[in-house]
Amino acid sequence: ILLDKDGKRKHTRPTFSGQQIFALEKTFEQTKYLAGPERARLAYSLGMTESQVKVWFQNRRTKWRKKHAAEMATAKKKQDSETERLKGASENEEEDDDYNKPLDPNSDDEKITQLLKKHKPGGGGMLLHPPEGEASA
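Now predict its structure.
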């Protein structure tokens, strides 16, 4: 028994055996909350007090919630970045509308060169000038 400076009993932190922790963790996987009779049964079987089991479960739920919240935040960040990536891709598709339009025979060579640089070669046999007799829109 430890005493503080005033001679009063000092609370010590219990240390649990590996077997006790294993049993507590296994029970926690099955249920996050224990009712009174279940807690009493578990405490008795592990040689612990009901209060120790109760506090262990409270602390374990807090740890579980923090981990769950961190996982949710990570998943949200991942989803947000994917949304941004897709949004950026759709903006690029809007820019590509120029590429899919027929070329104006009066457009300057620089504009044609920029459009071709943006896209891979061999993009389906694009015609630079419409066939004779056809007017471009």
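Residues 50-95 form the longest helix (46 residues).
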